[in-house]
Design a protein that fits this description.
MS_channel_C; SH3 type barrels; 58% helix; alpha+beta; elongated; disordered C terminus; 4 domains; 3-stranded antiparallel beta sheet; 5-stranded antiparallel beta sheet
Length: 383
Amino acid sequence: MVEPLATVEATLAGRGIATLLIVALVLGVRYAVRRLRRRWGSTAERSRTTLTVSAVVTLVTAGGIVAIVLLWDLIGPLERSYRSLGLEDLAGRLLLSVVVLSATYALTGFVGRVIGEFTGKRSTISEHQREIVYRLTQVTLYTLALLVVVGLFTRNLGSLLVGAGFLGIVVGMAARQTLGAVLAGFVLMFSRPFEIGDWVEIGEREGIVTDITIVTTRIQTFDGEYVMLPNDEVSGQPITNRTRKGRLRIEVEVGVDYDHDPGNAAKIAREAVRGLDEILQVPTPQVVGKRFGDSAIVLGVRVWIDNPSARRLWRARTAVIGAVTDAFDREGIKIPFPQRELMGRTEEGGFAIAGGERPAPAPTPDGGGGGGGGGGGGGDADD
């Protein structure tokens, strides 16, 4: 009895050690691949090497599982369990469904990388167009995979589609906002009011577009915040694209004292901004009269910048303000601060100023002063 027991223990020990070695091998391969991906960075993720490595990892993991099952002779018990529970057919369908969905997921990633490699070498295809092609391909593949999975569990696919149509109506009523965002996403992708990397203002939000999906549009504000906007809200708000034309006009307002000639001030301001590196010289800078302000004549200094961005805009604005201020100081042109002129009605005695003398009262209609009434009374008494 001792020898057979020792043999069993040796067998179990050998299987245990072999199992540990298999698990260590699988984990080691996965860890090594993870380290390599970090070292390769984003360039490797767009190459065919990533797909090959992912396939190797999947095969090694699956091979490890199969090896453990064979090592412990688990095929027989698993088969008897499936038969006793009557899950042979269902298990096969579930397994096939998992295979179909997994293959679709892997194929979607592969197609995305192929599209990225193919379009990345062509300057005529923009990032926005690349995103449209990828999203349409993704939706098509997942729709076909879903139909295949549904077909595995039913033989009358037509009746199922009819029922799914009614179910879709109910779901559409309940999730109309989400579906509206999806439809608006496709509208935005095809109408192209903006592209990834554009500087836009959507409603009260302003920033750089970082991603456009079929559900949301993501922008990064100039404060470093990432904002996700539902596409149905984006399509329902005014959209201002500041980078579409490749250049942007900015205007800086400056006030000129009423004692100065506004035409001469405009000429000096126009000469001051010419030659600035932060602005374009064509179209030429312009200075126009805007309005009569409370304390100054307001002029508008209009200049253009290329490749618009928030940084370029503020640099140009700062340069224009500095140049105009220096030029006005040299020419003695005053940029007045807000001020008011107070005047009192003379017939009511004006108004007193602190530390000053009160103005003399206005004469009365009979020619007398403020105290004439008393004097007149005295004259009558003498008579």
